[in-house]
Each structure stands twice: as C-alpha cells, then as structure tokens.
Design goal:
alpha+beta; OB fold (Dihydrolipoamide Acetyltransferase, E2P); 7 strands
C-alpha cells in the first residue's frame, strides 16, 4: 500500500491505469546512484488522455541517465485512480538503468588461456582501418600482418628508386629510375687517379705552373 492508503509504486507498475502524459518540467537534482547510472529528477507531467486528462502530476523520480525525460516529450505512466498523484512509469525500461560494462582486454588474465597469436592490441589504428576498409576480409587471421608486410616491401622498393623530374611517362608523371649503386673505395681511387693524370697533362701542356700543379695535386690527395 502507499503512504496514505494508495497503491505502492510496485503495484502501480502492474495494476495502475495506463495513460500517456506530456513532460512540462524537468529539474535534474544532480543526485546519482547505481554507479552513476541513475539520476534523481524533479518532474512535472500533464495527463493528456483518459478520464484524468489535463491533471498535472509533480514528483521526484529516479530515472536511468540514458532515459532522461525532456520537456515536451510524451511518456507512458500508470496512476492510481483513487489517488491520482500516485503514479509510476509505464515504460519498463525506466526501471532498467544501463549498467557500465567493462570490455575484457585482448590478453589473457592470469591463469586463463593465452590470447591467440597475432591478437591485435585494443585501439590499434591499423586494426581499425583494416576492419572498416577491408570488411569481412579484415577479420581473417594474419590479415593485418600481411598488409603490414606488403607496406614494408613497398616502402623498401620506393627507397631504392629516385625520381627523374626531367622525364615524364605517357600519363605526364615523373619517371622513377633505380638509384645509382653506392660508390665503392675502388671507384673513389680510380677517380682520384684520373684527376691526377689530367692535372699532369695540364702541366705538360704548360696550362698550369709547377707551383699551381703542386697546390692542386695536394688538394686532390687531401680530398680522398
């Protein structure tokens, strides 16, 4: 029974008169319970159907934070015809607040079975991209490793190429050409010998003096 002889809220939820009502006022008191999933609000309703149409109801109620009522919307309630001010929510979801759920980590808990090999870490950007872009293929075991391997191979291939901006292909794009192989010590020695030989030729032809020849020869040798 209610406080003054009416029905309790539990009784109203099953045997109260069902009507629709319009929310005309809501005030969030800031009070929370059930780990913050339920909020206490002061709410004023106006019955808009049945014999009690136009009757205003004013109560403080606990509601799920995900089902917070808003001014102007229509809600379902059940009330006691003999004590109209006694009412309960007619929507059962108003008594089923959403619980805070914790998603299990990908790795196994101590003592539990190990996580499958290759299980991606939560929040991995590569995994999120694959799941959205590859669709069902992205769920295949080893698909992420295959994509990463292809990307690494492609990067290595790009690093071994250079762009010749003076040449373009039929589509008007710069031509990719293999990079020149690195110079070896033998190549460097041969180049130095050629430079010294040309310097000696200049001296024989009288195009440089002996002093200039000695100075240039020293510079070439010091650059090795």
């Amino acid at each position: 029974m209610g406080l003054f002889g009416g029905q309790s809220e539990e009784e109203l939820r099953t045997s109260g008169t069902a009507v629709s009502a319009r929310v005309v006022y809501v005030d969030d008191t800031g009070k929370r319970r059930e780990s913050g999933t339920e909020a206490k609000v002061k709410i004023q309703l106006k019955i808009d159907s049945g014999a009690a149409r136009g009757r205003e109801l004013d109560k403080a109620k606990w509601v799920p934070v995900t089902k917070m009522p808003h001014v102007g919307e229509t809600v379902q309630i059940r009330f006691d015809p003999d004590h109209v001010d006694d009412w309960a929510w007619g929507d059962s979801s108003m008594y089923e607040p959403a619980r805070v759920s914790v998603q299990p980590a990908a790795h196994a808990a101590p003592g539990g079975p190990p996580a499958p090999a290759g299980t991606p870490a939560p929040g991995d950007p590569m995994v999120e991209f694959i799941q959205h872009a590859a669709g069902p293929w992205g769920q295949m075991p080893g698909f992420k490793q295959m994509i990463e391997g292809a990307m690494e191979a492609n990067m290595q291939a790009m690093q071994s190429m250079s762009i010749d901006t003076s040449r373009v292909d039929e589509g008007g794009f710069p031509v990719l050409i293999p990079n020149s192989p690195p110079r070896t010590p033998a190549d460097s020695s041969q180049d130095t010998a050629e430079r010294l030989k040309r310097l000696d030729t200049l001296l024989e032809q009288g195009l440089v003096t002996a002093e200039e020849h000695a100075e240039l020869r020293k510079k070439i040798i010091d650059s090795i």
